[in-house]
Amino acid sequence: MTVPSLASSLSAAVTTAAAALPGFVPLVRRSGRADFQADGALAAARTLRRNPRDVAAEIVAALPAGGLVAAAEVAGPGFVNLGLTDTALLAQVAGRLADPRLGVGTPEAGVTTVVDYSQPNIAKEMHVGHLRSTIIGDALVRILEHLGGTVVRRNHVGDWGMQFGMLIQYRVEHPAPVTEAATMRGLALLYRQARAAFDADPAFAERSRRRVVALQGGDPETTAAWRRIVAESTRYFTEVYDLLGVRLTGADAVGESAYNAALPGVAADLADQAVAVTSDGALCVFFDDVRGPDGEPTPLIVRKRDGGFGYAATDLAALRQRVTDLHADRLLYVVDARQSLHFRMVFDTARRAGWLPPTVPAAHVAFGTVLGADGRPFKTRAGDTVRLVDLLTEAVDRAREVVAAKNPGLTGAARDERARQVGIGAVKYADLATSRTRDYTYDPHRMLALTGNTGVYLQYAHARVRSILARADGADETVDPGIVLAPADRALILDLDGFADVLDEVVAGYEPHRLCGHLHRLAQSFTTFYERCPVLRAEPPYRGTRLALCRLTGDTLRTGLGLLGIDAPERL
Ligand code: ARG
């Protein structure tokens, strides 16, 4: 049985107490002044045309004493401050400990979500933009699944377009030894060389254009060359996902080309329904509220003037397939904020075409830019985009130093694995901890700090808990319902209590940073608790109860970090 949070039990109690006050919506929050504060009386008083303090007093009077609530009083203009009983707090700890799900329910059961994330481009390096999409997407996937949901991962790989003409043509004219070509450096080189030839040599450009036609026409030799390039890139992406510890496999990669066959039907349907119209030879969808700087409407181009299909048509075909064939109840697109207009137009078009029923929400889970120390988009010193592998390798190398300083006894493969867990965890946490729509500055030094809001700090807090439990050596961990709690015990219990509720908040706004904030507060409360309250030196029954609190803290940190895709090693 999932134990409801104290916050929700309290909310229910306040609602019952306010039964005589129509329009009262309890808003129960943690508070610095009491355990919780309820503000709902203010809004209700406005509707009822009454004095808010009188309304609050009525609620206070109607709250049953004992049980859950130890103290209730009117505060400020009409808030209700609420203190909980020690017994209620201790019962909550006991309930959570007995529940392997730590109070987390399955509100997503029966809901299928298709998450579009990562989306690297074939024959191109993955960069920091793909990092954000990959790890935000991965965290959302893990959380939705943990809440009982069904998730279909879609890695919408960029595997189609004009550039393949020049890549294949160059490969055909300059066959590369397979060993070299099989590396990403080989592919990146191919891209640069093909581009240079395309720009410099009109005859090569012409042959490349003919190659595109051959690719579109399914010419066997051309298709084989294309497949080989796709396979090489995919192998490389998989290595990066393994290093990142991201749960994406080849089966989740459904590239843009997978929708080619559906594109003419998409265009025909939109034209038949008059959602799209021909303008200047192109098939376009217009929107009242989308205009360029010149005031002219900016259309979504479904089919270009030359008859070719692009990015928009592919997204429309993918969307229709996700709703119709995959039976999605919700669609998420974890993509750079700069594409927000594109998604607005795609979603709006799909709604008008009836492909996206009103019951199926579609969200562009947009994210901001990663900045360098100079406050500009993160680049190498030479001004190139930073290769994701280089960035990750550097973080793992730095983490190796942090690990070596903390744990000099650890060597060899074990130290390498720990460095990977810490370095990758640091990169992920620094990204996930910022509200996703904001830009953030990439700072490898700060993200690996042992103090502050970092992944390392959380991993360290978890490792400390584990070492306390190891030192307790199997001692009794029973919660005694009769003990008197110290303020630091209470604060820790109340933070532990918020775990399940924060996951609901994460899903409500697709905001993993809320979970980061929660875990960080929890680690801080644990630090204060451990400074102020003796654990191993405490006498029974305090000892057992506090060991139980350590156990619950460790489990919550490990589960929470796991939902962010971050490992929680036993030691740092
Ligand atoms: N491959 C694209 C890029 O690197 C992102 C694709 C986003 N997903 C989508 N369904 N449009 O910019």
UniProtKB/TrEMBL annotation:
Q: What class of enzyme is it?
A: ligase
Residue stretches making up the DALR anticodon binding domain = 458-572
Tell me where it resides.
Cytoplasm
| GO terms (BP aspect) | arginyl-tRNA aminoacylation
The reaction(s) annotated as catalysed by this protein in its Swiss-Prot or TrEMBL entry are:
tRNA(Arg) + L-arginine + ATP = L-arginyl-tRNA(Arg) + AMP + diphosphate
| The EC number(s) this enzyme carries | 6.1.1.19
Q: Name one GO molecular function term.
A: arginine-tRNA ligase activity
Q: Name one GO cellular component term.
A: cytoplasm
- State the superkingdom: Bacteria
Q: What keywords would UniProt list here?
A: Aminoacyl-tRNA synthetase, ATP-binding, Cytoplasm, Ligase, Nucleotide-binding, Protein biosynthesis, Signal
Q: Where is this motif: 'HIGH' region?
A: 120-130
Output the Gene3D superfamilies linked to this UniProt entry. Arginyl tRNA synthetase N-terminal domain, HUPs, Isoleucyl-tRNA Synthetase, Domain 1
**What InterPro entries does the record tag this protein with?**
aa-tRNA-synth_I_CS, Arg-tRNA-ligase, Arg-tRNA-synth_N, Arg-tRNA-synth_N_sf, ArgRS_core, DALR_anticod-bd, Rossmann-like_a/b/a_fold, tRNAsynth_Ia_anticodon-bd
Q: Which family does it belong to?
A: Belongs to the class-I aminoacyl-tRNA synthetase family.
Q: How does it assemble?
A: Monomer.
Q: Can you name this protein?
A: Arginine--tRNA ligase
* Protein source organism: Micromonospora craniellae
